[in-house]
Design brief:
The protein is of the alpha/beta class. The chain is built from 16 helices and eleven strands. The chain has three domains: about 5-150, Rossmann fold, CATH 3.40.50; about 165-265 and about 290-310, no CATH class; about 320-385, RNA polymerase sigma factor, region 2, helix turn helix motif (Rna Polymerase Sigma Factor, Chain: A, Orthogonal Bundle). The chain has helices at about 15-25, 45-55, 65-70, 85-90, 110-115, 125-145, 155-160, 185-190, 195-200, 210-215, 220-230, 270-275, 310-320, 325-340, 345-360, 365-385, and strands at about 5-10, 30-40, 55-60, 80, 100, 120-125, 150, 170-175, 240, 250-255, 260-265. The structure holds magnesium ion. Magnesium ion (MG) binds near residues 152, 153, 154 and 223.
């Protein structure tokens, strides 16, 4: 019997993950179909993608660009929607089998919740969603019986190690980190690094936000919190290990002491494809890892004194409540300011730490509390920067 097509909605199809996801879909036309594509403001690329993949519907969030997209697709039967709310309502379409959330930052929270409410399985590439409101999001997913498949390479690695072991207890997970472009550097060097240097990641090609987060180790910090929620772990069950070659994407240690690792060349298409294909594996033409080319895989402890963000993330995770939400909002503003050359590299963790000290702590936040915490932290972070 022919396998039915898996119809995928991509939230954020014009970003780095979205583009790579379409690459995966294009290589499996008999298995995968792009059902909905959404973009915030990159109308030109959205139009190009829509013409190539012929989805059922597209959303251009920025309303000023609606006419451009609508007119460009007038000769097709692709439905065109616009506005922030369309992002959520379009996900209720019956034909969608899986939603890939590849939005950047806090903006991913609302549409991800809508997709879960609509009963759609999630391929989650937007880690900030779980960092900000992990308890709420995973609670809703349990209530709706919806699966959340990780797309982040580390969490996909853990998930792949757990296949066939879901009933076995995890002793701990070991999240690997490349260490970013400034591994081994101390504060005196970090004080002078430029945006261009920070945007040059040694192993991965990614969007600007996550690349800066990788350079400050905040990315690993956010991933520690993401791992807690995805796999139901305590803070002391998540270890971070620097592994500069980025070949082992993460590991799981079980109760008997056995460790499983998932390996491969750093290529985001692999975790994206696994989130689409699970429980199966699809063939792929991605380049293969060759052990002989890598005579040594090396490991070291992360330097949390120099790269404060990772320590702050562990602190936020232990404190829980709205503290990870504060961490995330302050970091989003700090990264944005760094990308606009308004602040230096070391000011980013300073802003995050100051916000964590100054914002009121809420032990059991509601969705409204998260929304307010996010908003007020951003205001506080702006004040600290300007
Ligand atoms: Mg990652």
């Amino acid at each position: 019997m022919k396998t039915p097509l898996k119809k995928i909605a991509i939230l954020g199809s014009t970003g780095s993950i979205g583009v790579q996801a379409l690459d995966v879909i294009a290589s499996h036309p008999d298995l995968l179909q792009a059902e909905v594509l959404t973009a915030h403001h990159n109308a030109d690329l959205l139009i190009e993608q829509a013409r190539k993949f012929n989805p059922n519907a597209v959303v251009i969030v920025n309303e000023d660009l609606y006419t451009q997209v609508k007119e460009a697709l007038a000769s097709t039967d692709i439905k065109v929607y616009t506005g922030e709310n369309a992002l959520s309502s379009v996900l209720e379409m019956d034909s969608i089998d899986l939603v890939l959330t590849a939005l950047v930052g806090y903006s991913g929270l609302k549409p991800t919740m809508s997709a879960i409410r609509a009963g759609k399985p999630i391929a989650l590439a937007n880690k900030e969603t779980l960092v900000v409101a992990g308890e709420l999001v995973t609670g809703l997913a349990r209530e709706k019986g919806v699966n959340i498949f990780p797309v982040d390479s580390e969490h996909s690695a853990i998930f792949q190690c757990l296949v066939g072991e879901f009933h076995n207890k995890i002793e701990k997970v070991i999240l690997t980190a490349s260490g970013g472009p400034f591994r081994g550097k101390k504060a005196d060097v970090l004080a002078t690094v430029t945006k261009a240097q920070a945007l040059k990641h040694p192993n991965w090609t990614m969007g600007a936000k996550v690349t800066i987060d990788s350079a400050t180790l905040m990315n690993k910090g956010l991933e520690v919190i993401e791992a807690k929620w995805l796999f139901g772990l305590r803070a002391d069950q998540v270890d971070v290990l620097v592994h500069p070659q980025s070949i082992i994407h993460s590991m799981v240690q079980f109760e008997d002491g056995s460790i499983k690792a998932q390996m491969g060349l750093p290529d985001m298409r692999l975790p994206i494809q696994f989130a689409f294909s699970y429980p199966d594996r699809y063939p792929s033409a991605f380049p293969r890892f060759d052990f002989a080319q890598y005579p040594s895989l090396t490991f070291e402890k992360p330097d949390m004194e120099t790269f404060r963000n990772l320590a702050l993330a562990f602190e936020a995770l232990k404190k829980a409540g709205n503290m990870p939400c504060v961490l995330n909002a302050a970091n989003e503003i700090a990264v944005e300011a760094f990308l606009k050359d308004k602040i230096g590299f070391l000011k980013m963790p300073e802003v995050v730490e100051a916000c964590m000290t100054k914002m009121p702590f809420i032990p059991n936040p509601t969705l409204e509390d998260y929304v307010n915490t996010d908003k007020e932290t951003r205001i506080k972070a702006y004040e600290l920067i300007n």
